[in-house]
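During the no-cost extension, the postdoctoral fellow (Dr. R.K.) reprocessed legacy sequence entries with the updated structure-token encoder. One reprocessed record is reproduced below for audit purposes.
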Amino acid sequence: MYGKFVGSTSADGARWRTALWRALAKRAGSGLRVGTGALFSHPETFELGDGVFVGEYAVLQGRFDGRCVVGDHAWLGPQAYFDARDLVIEEYVGWGPGAKVLGSMHTGVPHDIPIIATDLEIKPVRISAWADIGVNAVILPGVSVGKGAIVGAGAVVVADVQPFSVVAGVPAKFLHWRPGYESPNARG
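Re-encoded structure tokens follow.
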């Protein structure tokens, strides 16, 4: 049934998409909005807060034994991709268009078989409240982004990001603290 409404640009199609996501999710708060073309797998593992926005053509790829939590008033941009096997996005997170999160990787062991045939290792990803993930950024498996942190556009985040910091680049590096925030190290 979802296929009938996934590509609809009408108000009726938007209502049906939202109703179906709400019906299939483990939990879905009020005010959920689901854009045209948004796709999912294993929505029974999704816990969606109040006021969540899922942008056009975003993909949330869950796992039958996984967990995907999206907090209140999170904004998930168009064409974003979420490896939502063990993912927590807290409240008021902004997720830029085209940004991606990977929560799993192949071990590559043993070396004498194709990497894709090796075991899949799932690593939790945590995006804390108020964080902002820039356009086309990539968050790699096992990474946590701290409260109020900013990840710059196109950054590839390979390590944890401190709260209220600004990071950018490939790989992402610390640039500075957000204006008005006093670094914990500066408190003597």
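The longest strand covers residues 173-177. Residues 53 and 174 are 29 Å apart (CA to CA). The remaining legacy entries will be reprocessed before the final report is submitted.
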